[in-house]
């Protein structure tokens, strides 16, 4: 039986939060990634319609303002910067120990851990094997907006599918990795949650979010255990025909349909299916996997 992370969710836009989990701000000695002040960065994101930001400076926790009605919700965090980088979000401590120790501590303190930019600088900055070796990594960046102007490639759905196909369920994120003003709002995550840190982290842990570079998911429903229905629009609400690609084990394209919405009948032998929606202008949206729990519990070969 498939498990659908989006089951019985309300698709009213007011119940979804737009946010970025990878944000640098404030100049500090030895770290040139974020020059703009926190309040200026947060204000810019607020103007772009964001509801939350995780502040993730390199190996440093950032003091967040207590009263912030004019700013998005700010999440505590840092970017663990020993090769390869990880986002440690929602924990209480900073760790410069091993990857395993830092990730475990973040998780113990109620936080979550995301592998950063798998193809930064080199094709396999984070290999699937390396991600699989870190049991406390719960997600990975399948799109990183800043890499296209640095070195490497930001899109990493290939690594995501390799990890999923190995029997490990992790979630896919699209993050700006904001450094400068021109990195703003390249991609984002839409989370079904109340606007505070614990609720956002809890929703992400359950896969109640999707990643986007400009599209809004307006429905993802499963009936009779295998019948999928999806629809999406542009961020401004404009509807047009889009490409719906259904992707399964080992990154196989199970099928493609075109329209303002899409229907698909799942083959119940497929351990997971995720959907990539692409608009004519190139904007994309990635759903989290709809999956058979037994496959990710080591019960499948």
Structure description:
It is a single chain. The protein has 301 residues and is of the alpha+beta class. The protein has five helices and 18 strands. It is globular, with a radius of gyration of 18 Å. Strands 1, 2, 3, 9, 10, 13, 14, 16, 17 and 18 form a ten-stranded mixed sheet that branches. A five-stranded mixed sheet has the order 4-5-6-7-8. Strands 11-12-15 form a three-stranded antiparallel sheet, with no helix packed on it. A hairpin with a 5-residue loop joins strand 13 and strand 14. The mean pLDDT is 95.
Structural class: alpha+beta
Number of helices: 5
Share of residues in strands: 25-35%
Spatial extent as radius of gyration? 18 Å
- The separation of the N and C termini measures 17 Å
- Uncertain spans, ≥5 residues at pLDDT below 50? none
Main β-sheet: number of strands, strand sense, barrel status? 10 strands, mixed
SSE topology string: EHEEEEHEHEHEEHEEEEEEEEE
The helix content is 10-25%
Mean pLDDT value: 95
The overall strand count is 18
Overall, the morphology is globular
Fold blueprint:
Layout: E1 16-23, H1 38-47, E2 52-55, E3 73-75, E4 77-80, E5 86-89, H2 99-108, E6 112-115, H3 128-132, E7 139-144, H4 157-165, E8 171-175, E9 188-192, H5 197-205, E10 209-212, E11 215-223, E12 227-234, E13 242-247, E14 253-259, E15 261-265, E16 272-278, E17 284-286, E18 290-291
């Amino acid at each position: 039986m498939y498990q659908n992370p989006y089951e019985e969710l309300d698709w009213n836009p007011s119940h979804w939060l737009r946010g970025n989990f990878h944000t640098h701000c404030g100049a500090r000695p030895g770290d040139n990634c974020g020059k703009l002040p926190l309040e200026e960065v947060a204000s810019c994101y607020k103007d772009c319609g964001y509801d939350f930001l995780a502040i993730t400076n390199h190996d440093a926790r950032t003091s967040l303002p207590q009263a912030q009605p004019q700013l998005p919700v700010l999440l505590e965090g840092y970017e663990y910067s020993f090769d390869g980088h990880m986002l440690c979000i929602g924990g209480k401590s900073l760790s410069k120990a091993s990857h395993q120790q830092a990730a475990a501590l973040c998780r113990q303190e109620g936080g979550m851990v995301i592998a950063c930019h798998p193809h930064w600088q080199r094709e396999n900055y984070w290999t699937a094997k390396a991600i699989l070796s870190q049991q406390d990594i719960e997600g990975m960046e399948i799109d990183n907006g800043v890499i296209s102007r640095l070195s490497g490639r930001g899109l990493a759905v290939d690594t995501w599918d390799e990890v999923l196909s190995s029997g490990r369920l992790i979630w896919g994120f699209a993050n700006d990795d904001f450094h400068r003003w021109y990195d703003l709002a390249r991609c984002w995550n839409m989370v079904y949650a109340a606007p505070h840190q614990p609720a956002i982290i809890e929703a992400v842990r359950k896969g109640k979010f999707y990643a986007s570079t400009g599209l809004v998911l307006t429905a993802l429903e499963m009936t009779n255990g295998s019948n999928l229905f999806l629809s999406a629009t542009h961020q401004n609400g404009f509807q047009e025909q889009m490409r719906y690609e259904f992707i399964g084990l080992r990154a196989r394209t199970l099928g493609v349909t075109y329209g303002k919405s899409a229907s698909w009948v799942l083959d119940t032998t497929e351990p997971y299916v995720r959907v990539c929606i692409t608009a004519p202008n190139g904007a994309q949206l990635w759903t989290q996997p709809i999956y058979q729990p037994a496959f990710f519990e080591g019960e499948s070969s």
